[in-house]
Amino acid sequence: MRTDPYLNGAEQTGIGHSWGLANVTSSEVAGARYDKVISLAGAGMLPDWEPRPTTEYSNLYYDDVLIHGQGATNLFTNRGVVWDGNNPIHRDEFDQYFYRGPDDDELDGAINSVEEGNIIMDNHSLIATDSEDNLKALNNMLKIVGR
Amino acid sequence: MDAELTWQEAKAHTQVMEGEIAALIPKDAVLSIDQLQTGTLLSCNETQHSWAGATTVTVAEGTEIEPIVKAIEAHYRANGTEVSVDRDVDENYQIQIDPPAPGESYLVSDGLSPNEIRIASGSACFMLPEGIYPGGDF
User: Fold this and answer.
1) Pseudo-torsion of CA B60, B63, B69, B72, nearest 10°?
2) Which of A34, A69, A83, B83 sits between 20 and 30 A of B110, alpha carbons compared?
């Protein structure tokens, strides 16, 4: 698209949810260049990934099952269990935008019940849905894409 | 939820509310008020939807937006409506007004361009008639 005379002037934004963000960031490793990369509870990046200085990176997320996984360490490698710890939520290059889910009041920190597990599963999907519970995040995505 | 609420009624009420919020902005600061005539549908749950629209108010250059948003916040707090506060992605003061009807919500903050206040809305939840596809403009 960068070489297409009709498209090369357009702003180009890559958005990925969960493991889909890895597709976007892997395409950067392969040479793609975006003006904006938006991670929706994005999973991670390849070890070779380097942020591009002309790309604006954002990460929008709820308290979800992925960030609980991203906080866990593999005892054998001493690295994070998700993409070896190379996650948007742990990288300063990403502006971080946290949202509260509709049932977060029922979470007390430790996830030790089926109900709490279901809430953080639902929260992981919520960021990429057209649910009215996601209204604030959707409007902020609009602002990021539009600015 | 009001079981009889139609999407047209939900939209109409929500647009009136957008107008009420816009009317709280000091008149001498307002250059134009632009309400979306069509919106989109968000989902409330497996069977219900919420109509989502927006009104953009353009204000005179140099108008301080944060005190205006705070005055709107105070207005709704004073009449007992739930209001929450945070910052948007540009660090602008943002309020979310949550009337009691499930689904109904209004976000008020700076707009997509300078000198704009944007009121983004979500209506109370309603049931679409059978056979109506929830995509596209409503």
Assistant:
1) -60
2) A34
Condensed to tens digits (0 to 9), the pLDDT of residues A115-132 reads 999 999 999 999 999 999
Report if residue B134 sits inside a domain: no
Q: Which of B40, B107, B112 sits opposite A136 (nearest CB)?
A: B107
**Nearest CA-CA distance, residue B89 and chain A, Å:** 6
Helix, strand or coil for residue A13?
strand
Would you give the DSSP letter of residue A106? G
Task: Give the strand pairing for B48-59 and B126-127.
Answer: antiparallel
Taking the domains of chain A in order of start, what are their residue ranges?
13-146
CA of B99, closest CA in chain A: separation in Å?
A: 14
Residue B1 has pLDDT above 70, yes or no: no
Question: Is B138 a domain residue?
Answer: no
| Mean pLDDT calculated for residue range B104-111 | 97
Q: Best mutation site among A36, A59, A139, A142 for testing chain B: the one with the most B CBs within 10 Å?
A: A139
Global ipTM: 0.93
Q: Give yes or no for residue A49 having a pLDDT over 90.
A: yes
Hey, is the C-beta of A134 within 8 angstroms of any chain B C-beta?
A: yes
How many folded domains does chain B comprise?
1
C-beta neighbour count of A136 within 10 angstroms: 22
Of B73, B43, B89, whose CA–CA distance to A94 is shortest? B89
Q: How far is CA B88 from the centre of its chain?
A: 15
Higher-scoring residue by pLDDT: A145, A75: A145
The strand order across the sheet containing A13-17 reads A13-17, A36-40, A56-62, A94-99
